């Protein structure tokens, strides 16, 4: 839908990842994927990574502030299942980024390989079982 009257459209500001341990997840993403932790509040109920114009944030799986309003977070029943969201990061050197992630505790899912659409892609699971795609940028 086009905006009228010079109104500014919405900006994608946050991706919030629900995790078991906010501080541990923030430290893991810093080590495994090369981000800096921008903010970790004293209660350890919120952390943010320095990740450009869209902030990656972490918050606990269950909180009385949101569970009653929006429902409880549902996790996959087994490691063979995955959640409905995948986090994707682009790197110039996918192989090095994949090794760094695995060396930092990510669980290997699929080693990097060249895809028919021109992207090199590998997959890992983070410490909460969330799938992270490590790929190269695709240029049209």
From TrEMBL:
Gene3D superfamilies: 2,3-Dihydroxybiphenyl 1,2-Dioxygenase, domain 1 (3.10.180.10). Residues 11-137 form the VOC domain. It comes from the Eukaryota. This is VOC domain-containing protein. The gene is ga26178.
